[in-house]
Specification:
- This protein has two domains: 3-158, Rossmann fold (3-Layer(aba) Sandwich), CATH 3.40.50.300; 164-226.
- It has helices at 3-6, 30-42, 57-66, 76-79, 84-87, 109-125, 145-152, 164-177, 184-191, 198-215, 221-226, and strands at 46-50, 72-75, 97-100, 129-133, 155-158.
- Helix 8 (164-177) crosses helix 9 (184-191) and helix 8 crosses helix 10 (198-215).
- 46% of the residues lie in helices and 10% in strands.
- The protein is elongated.
- Helix 6 links the parallel strand 3 and strand 4 (129-133).
- Residues 1-6 have low confidence and may be disordered.
Length: 229
């Protein structure tokens, strides 16, 4: 690594809870999970994962990174103000290159060009290139054509929206991790009142956990109503 990149301090932090053990598998996500695990075990070109905000893209990518300690995780939300050449220097020598929220490079030509060249270097070295976005590669209309073409070569998966039963199971899983016990009625109550996104589920369970500790009460429906839920 050059002196320039060695001195670059990047604001990158992974969520310690974003692991496979905390990932709630669904029948509709079985294909991408199997593909990712095969890639992690055997190698490959990579994949492109897309979904609307808050559906678990970052969790999925970080879970992949957690199994490859020397993977280069690149959350674009935190990196756009940094020089892309320095951030991506020698990335192809890492075990994986993982670009989270790649759609955010819209309007950032220098990042688009740098990621295009990074992708090509990864292809030459056989380094898997993983990316996520809120659109499919074809939907990245403002990304220059050469990069869009490269991203379109990746196997593409979409994380589907959560069905009611699966979301209730997710709420129960998150509550269990915090030592909370949600009844089926409480899980159904919450599912009908918040957006069915993992991000919202994490936030509401955190709120309930903190409130039950302070008030020394169980998470019943009357108590949740007092919290404004």
């Amino acid at each position: 690594m050059s002196d320039r990149s060695a001195q670059l301090v990047l604001p990158i932090s992974a969520n310690p809870g974003a692991t496979w053990s905390h990932w709630v598998s669904r029948e509709v996500t079985g294909q991408v999970e199997s593909f990712a695990r095969a890639l992690l075990d055997q190698g490959g070109t990579g994949f492109f994962l897309w979904a609307s905000e808050g559906q678990g893209k970052s969790h999925f990518l970080q879970a992949c990174c957690a199994t490859k300690p020397s993977a280069r995780y690149l959350p674009m939300e935190s990196l756009l103000e940094y020089p892309p050449e320095a951030v991506l220097e020698h990335a192809e020598n890492d075990t994986m290159v993982v670009v989270d929220d790649i759609h955010l490079i819209d309007g950032h030509r220098s990042w688009q060009e740098a990621l295009f060249h990074c992708y090509n270097r990864c292809a030459e070295t056989g380094t898997p290139f993983l990316a996520s976005a809120t659109q499919s590669p074809a939907g990245l209309k403002n990304v220059f054509a050469d990069l869009q073409s490269r991203l379109s070569l990746l196997t593409t998966f979409k994380l589907p929206a959560w069905e009611l039963d699966d979301f209730e199971r997710l709420l129960g899983h998150l509550a269990h991790d915090r030592g909370l016990l949600l009844s089926d009625d409480v899980a159904r109550y919450l599912t009908m009142r918040i957006q069915r996104r993992p991000l919202d589920a994490v936030n509401v369970i955190a709120t309930i956990d903190e409130s039950t500790l302070v008030e020394k009460r169980s998470p019943t429906i009357p108590f949740l109503k007092l919290l404004g839920l």
